[in-house]
Write a structure and sequence with these properties.
six-stranded mixed sheet
Length: 158
């Protein structure tokens, strides 16, 4: 499955081919359930974010992106990913309003970023350690960082 959907490679684990959830791990030790499409660590606010975007848009089943853990000091990669989703990039390819040290997207075209923005819709959870990006009117709960998503979850509304 990794070859079919995730051409950019990186340090990640693939699970359910039709899963609608991707999980981004920041400063946290956590193994999501097998029902997620993919999960892995995000370390940097530039190449790391590019890989998350490219691998997310390469799988049309992914509609939810859950970011778990505390932001990485200095890089602020989780916050930079959220800023990219919300604001895009400027004419110098810098992620608009990103707090990271070097938040530049140099290996993705603008239409890839727009596709990423359209594929996922941001929803912020009450906990500052748990951020959820979700598609449309589907609202899912994340309790104690335990994800309960089935591979066909996007067809159900809660």
């Amino acid at each position: 499955m990794a070859e079919e959907y995730y051409p950019w490679g990186g340090e990640f684990t693939t699970c359910s081919p039709n899963g609608c959830v991707a999980v981004v791990l920041l400063n946290i030790q956590y193994t999501p359930p097998e029902s997620v499409a993919i999960y892995g660590r995000l370390k940097t606010e530039n190449i790391g974010v590019e890989k998350i975007v490219a691998n997310t848009i390469s799988n049309p089943h992914i509609r939810f992106l859950v970011i778990c853990g505390d932001d990485i000091r200095g890089h602020r990669s989780g916050s930079s990913l959220l800023a990219l989703h919300k604001n895009g990039i400027d004419s110098n390819h810098r992620i608009i309003d990103a707090p990271g040290a070097i938040p530049y997207i140099e290996n993705l075209k603008e239409d890839a970023i727009k596709r990423f923005q359209g594929q996922l819709e941001k929803k912020k959870k009450k906990s500052t350690k748990s951020l959820l990006i979700a598609q449309g009117s589907h609202h899912h709960r994340m309790e104690n960082r335990i994800l309960r998503y089935g591979s066909n979850q996007r067809q159900h509304s809660t």
